[in-house]
Design goal:
The complex is a heterodimer of chains A (639) and B (378).
Chain A lengths: L1 H7 L1 H10 L5 H33 L1 H12 E6 L6 E2 L7 E11 L9 H12 L3 H13 L7 E5 L3 H9 L7 E11 L6 H4 L2 E3 L2 H7 L9 E3 L2 H5 L1 H5 L3 E7 L5 E8 L6 E4 L3 H18 L4 E7 L5 E7 L15 H7 L21 H10 L9 E3 L2 E4 L8 E4 L5 E3 L1 H6 L3 H9 L9 H10 L21 H7 L6 H8 L9 H13 L2 E3 L4 E5 L5 E4 L4 E4 L4 H14 L17 E9 L9 E10 L6 E7 L4 H26 L2
Parallel strand pairs in A: 2-10
Antiparallel strand pairs in A: 1-8, 3-4, 3-5, 6-7, 8-9, 10-18, 11-12, 11-23, 13-16, 14-15, 17-20, 18-19, 21-22, 22-23
Helix pairs in contact in A: 12-22, 14-17, 14-21, 16-19
Chain B lengths: L12 H26 L10 H21 L2 H25 L1 E3 L2 E7 L2 E3 L1 H19 L7 H19 L4 H18 L3 H22 L2 H11 L10 H13 L10 H4 L11 H8 L1 H25 L3 H25 L17 H19 L6 H5 L1
The chains are: A alpha+beta (639), B mainly alpha (378).
Amino acid sequence: MRSELRLANPNQRRRWRARDPEDKPAEVFPRRFFLLKSLMLLLFGLLLLQLARMQLIEHEAYQQRAESNRLRIVPDLPARGLIYDRNGEQLVQNVPIYSAGVVAADVPGDKFLVVIDELSRETGVPAADIATKVAQARNSDDPFTPVIIKAGLDESTLFRLRERQAQLPGVQVLAESVRNYATGALTADVLGYVGRIDQDEYARLHESGYQLNDRLGKTGVELTYEQALRGTAGYRQVEIDAAGQELRTIRSSPPGNAGNLVLSLDLDLQRQVTEYLMTAMAESGSQNAAAAVMDVRTGEMLSMVTLPAYDNNVLTEPVDQEALPSLVNDPAKPLVNRVLAEIYAPGSTFKMVTGTAALQEGVATPSTRITSRGAISVPNQYGGEPAVFRDWSALGTLDFYGGVRMSSDVYFYYLSGGFGDFRGLGAERLARYAREYGLGAPTGIDIPGEAAGLVPDPAWKEEAVGNPWYLGDTYTFGIGQGYLAVTPLQLLGVTTAVANGGDVLVPHVAREIVHEDGTVITRIERQVAHHVAVSDENLAVMREGMRQAAVSPGTAASGASRLVPIAGKTGTAEFGPKRADGKHDTHAWYTGFAPFDNPEISVVVFLQKGTGAGTAGPVAAQILDYYFARQRLAQEALP
Amino acid sequence: MIARTIRLRDFDPLLMLAALGLVTLGAMLIYSGSLTRFGEPDLTDLSHPVSRQALFAAIGLGLAIVFTLFNYRTLGALSAGLYIASLAALVYVLIVGDETYGSRRWIVIGGTQIQPSEIAKLIVIIAIAKYVSDNQETLGELRVFSTSLALAGIPAVLVFLEPDLGSAVIFAAIWLGMVIVAGARWRHIGGLFAVALIAIPFVFLGLVSDYQRDRLELWMEPEADAQGAGLPTLQAEISIGSGGLFGKGLTEGSQTQLDFLRTETTDYIFSVLGEELGFAGALALFGLFLLLLWRALRVAETSADLFGRLFATGFVVFVLVQTFVNVGVNVRLLPVTGIPLPFISQGGSSLITLFVGLGILESILIRHRRLSFRDFYV
């Protein structure tokens, strides 16, 4: 009870504490209370120290981090530029769609699975796919750009997602703009399509401002003129909440204008060429075909048709998942552009090159006369049977014009390889001229995916085939067979150069890039890739030969227009193994230009199966007739 | 027993005012923290956190008055029953409790979530105070020392299993603070610490769940999962740091208002204060806490008996350690553990428990004077 007494009086207590020995339990209290008080100060002191470090010393850095939490830069793209044909027909529309996206950085870790599960249920996209995409974005250098989970939401999904946005942090409904190609398959190979950026493209382009969910031109002019069509992005700085929802725009810089593209393509002509070619394809049993029309003065492409074609709307978002597999797996390969991506032996159309080279090199003159008895035979240098090189008929004695007009193979065997006392060009010189005309290298057209083709020569054969070059190789080369391979577009370039006096032009399907109001930003100018080293006199000889060919009984008469005089050349090129009857299947070629005196356009027609005169020629005639009939109508309509 | 008188003059208004100041500050922070999700409060709408907190504060204040008038010594007599009841509640919550954020801590009664561990803290203080004050002479004996340890140890293990490591630490701290003040031998305490130190690696490997191990790793390096489990920790840190000296202003903090902060009216309410009221706000908060603790410690020093003294000590340790752990988690001095900030965090169980504790302190205060001869003759 003594202790209680002491404690009852604080004054006494204090005095006694100083005196009393420590082992009396009651005396322990003041000392241990002192400990508790010290602990109190110590703990609050620790907290204050840490707070001072965070709030006073490192405040700036934390402030920065809070700001970058709150603020986000959202790129603001202008509406993608439109594309028109040369007559102002609109070929593509921008269509708004709604897409479900996920901002990886805004999905809280503890809700990751829930959000993905819910989103999967709403959109029908497998949860595993969503998880992969989001995880990838989360580990990328840009976890703030929404990754698109499903493009093109139907209305009920759209409303449900909007309603439930609060429960689905990180999920966003995005308004996007996609392409709709009004003319579909008719222009697919020229326009290409716009698709979602893939990983490689992103890696290459994200420095130029492309985002993870961006779309861009994948092929065609959509790809070539991507920069102009896309325009320059502006940005908006927005305030967002933790779920990534935009609350308000803090500042913004408006996007620059995107350019509209005006093509040189003539939609009406394109439609007609397609129709003619389709009919011919069906009649000839060809699996594929191609045709193109070029302005020989400018290099502008007026028409470019490859068959079978594909509908580029299938590949545009929202991608048609049902049509896609059959498109990709179609054995007819509709995705291949046969005008410029496939190579074939040009057959007799190549005689334009052999002929002009021979004239220029003095191997032949217009009056050089050679007799075709139906074939020439060359003694085998290793003994045995002599090799026989056939003409398509015993055509008798022909001058240069006759050689071209009748497309005599024997005549051109002489010019290329020589025979007896007649000295030919030889493979090397012929190859040089072929290259002069732009063969063996891409033309540089403004559509991606062009093939280079092949111009053979002895060095190439030694290297690639491993055999020496024989005289026979020169002969087949001279008539456009053997190793030589060209794209229809390259051949069209040869015809164009013959027509315009020797300019191999860079073909282009775009004429100009214009502002919305029509003012021209960029004009795609005539560009000469190469001037062929053949004099115009010699080219004129070839033109005259081709004019005669296009007049009955010339070999190219089937391509003649009823409206204007033309110059033309057929080709019937053997391909594949020999058939049972000992003959080959043949590709059908026709190329020419018109009007003869003042050339405007050149044409090339290719069908996988058929003959130049029988199959390809009539298509060329239809094209030329349509073109000049329409021109005449237009001129008559003028006062 | 010596006859004692009740002197209402000895009621300590400062103690109550400090508490009310904290509750008011807390209500402001709850208001700000719940603005995004609940909008402006309507005091008649009890689903709004601010209204609920006000209601709980009113109930708490009423109970504080009841417990002030109630003789605290009677609580000692009731302590055994209360203790057993609270253990039962802790076992019950483990079996059927509501699970939130991966742990079972709540029982739902009549639509209201009750957190038994908060109430148990007060009851354990009462039980230890009773047992130790009854056996103070023999506290030096290992048997008594160990029994007192068990009184805190059993509930500590139960809450640890919820799992609620934070509350387990609070139980341990309460016990430690009380027996030290009661005069336990340093030898025993030192021995216990040695055992604990040796046990730590084994406990870490065997007993601590993956959940807790993950939390510990996150504390060391929250950036490892910055968008996931590390997010609350990082965002709390950013909130506080960005508050600076004077804060961004109540309801003006982007971290709080744009929902970057999680559990911003409970576990991370201090981060709201740090962001919106800044270092100055934290100083004010700590000032109020120190005032409250100082006045509570004064109760311990003036108590007429050992039971009251130990109860007050336990209460001080309870509020002190719980505050330190909560704020420590917010400022990343301690690994993540979800315990409320006394008087501030939204939550009825904690608030009412604290006010009952304050009532008991006042009860001790107004009963601390003995009738003396002086009283008769003056």
